[in-house]
Amino acid sequence: MDTLMSIAKHYETGETLPEEIYQKLLAAGTFRAGTLSLRQLTWSFIASSFAVLAIFLQLYYYHLFSALSDPAKLYNDLRWNVTRL
């Protein structure tokens, strides 16, 4: 507060920033913070949904082409696609 009040002066009169306006500036600092958090949560949900869809499609692909005859290969491929380990 001290920093803002020391530089926030009227250019002609030198009057400092009124406390009421300062409080409004503080309140505006968190304006829409919840909306931005919700937006990020939405994007993360979409990204994780695509990842789950990719896993199910891979399972379907392996099942369709009878790759389940080698369960170790299926496990290792899925592990690699999900974790990259």
UniProtKB/TrEMBL annotation:
Gene3D superfamilies: Neurolysin, domain 3 (1.10.1370.10). InterPro entries: Neurolysin/TOP_dom2. Keywords: Membrane, Transmembrane, Transmembrane helix. The chain crosses the membrane at residues 41-61. It comes from the Eukaryota. This is Uncharacterized protein.
